[in-house]
Amino acid sequence: MNTNTLVHPRSFWPVLARDPLMLAGLTLLVALVGLSMLAPLITWHDPAALAPRLRLKPISADFWLGTDSLGRDLFSRVLYGGRLSITLAALVSVISICAGLLLGLLAGYFRGLDAIVMRIIDGIMAIPGLLLAIAMVALGGATIPTMVTAIAIPEIPRVARLVRSVVLSVREEPYVEASLGMGTRTWRVLWRHVLPSTINPLVVQATFICASAILIEAVLGFLGLGFPPEIPSLGSIISEGRPFFQRAPWIVLFPGIYLALLILSVNLFGDALRDRLDPRMARQRKG
Fold first, then answer.
1. Which domain, by its residues, includes 260?
2. N- to C-terminal Cα distance for the chain?
3. What is the 3-class SS of 191-202, one letter each residue?
């Protein structure tokens, strides 16, 4: 019987308390996500409201992070921009995991489909992810469905190859062969024996997909291919603040720091989670 399952929720907190890296990453991630999700409640300025007479104001009691070149409150824009990035990353992660899981199961378990699915995956992986995202956004416009699709497509092959490798090893296990020998239906074998073995690597992969999606969305915004100016985006905020960096460096620094901390927290938590779910990886890194 398969024993490669995710850490039980009851044992998660003791594990978390013994792992400072995981605790630090999760604490920072929860704090940043909480700030962004609660942005409507903890900000009192409209992130899109223009106030030219208040342009380039430094940090004050009214403007906690100052204002930008159009007089917009930077604190609210950073939080709303982080909210957009987190939401986008979550959608990309879910779509990539679901699509990659399906393709990986088909390629790994059904030998007749393996060559077909893997050749399609190889073709997608041959296209640089960032260039594909730029092309799709340029053609389809900077809408949430287009952005999610453009960022998710390059991630799907990575998930599919990961799942396929797990399925290929599990398929030859004695308990799977015994289940098939007893006449168990294919879908039931996949559900009870094969699918649980993919949970651990998929959970870890989901964290790295989130970090990658946040970074790519910021890059697209920085290049001017992101959402419209009235919609706050971390990349576009940094891009808009570049001409005023010497006079008002906070326009670039604060969204940049928020973006860096957000990606760092996701990667810290993902690395620690990978070490916890795969002890062999932890031993290799220590060695």
1. 20-36+72-277
2. 31
3. HHHHHHHHHHHH
Q: How far apart are CA 16 and CA 11, in angstroms?
A: 9
Contact between residue 235 and residue 218 where contact means Cβ atoms under 8 Å apart = yes
Residue 38 neighbours by CB under 8 Å, 6+ apart: none
Whose tokens are 């308390």? That residue is: 17
How many whole angstroms separate alpha carbon 117 and alpha carbon 130? 23
Element (H, E) at 230: none
Identify any residues that bridge with 67 across adjacent strands, giving them in sequence order.
73
Structure-block tokens of residue 10: 């009851």
Distance CA 132, CA 209 (A): 16
How many whole angstroms from its chain centre is CA 99? Answer: 15
CB-based contact 228:47 (threshold 8 Å): no
Q: Are 190 and 109 in contact (CB under 8 A)?
A: yes
Q: Identify the pLDDT of residue 3.
A: 43
The percentage of the chain sitting over the pLDDT mark of 90, rounded to a whole number, equals: 49
What's this model's pTM, rounded to 2 decimal places?
0.87
Residue 202 lies in a domain: yes
CB 86 within 8 A of CB 148: no
- Domain count within the chain: 1
How many angstroms separate the CA atoms of 225 and 138, rounded?
7
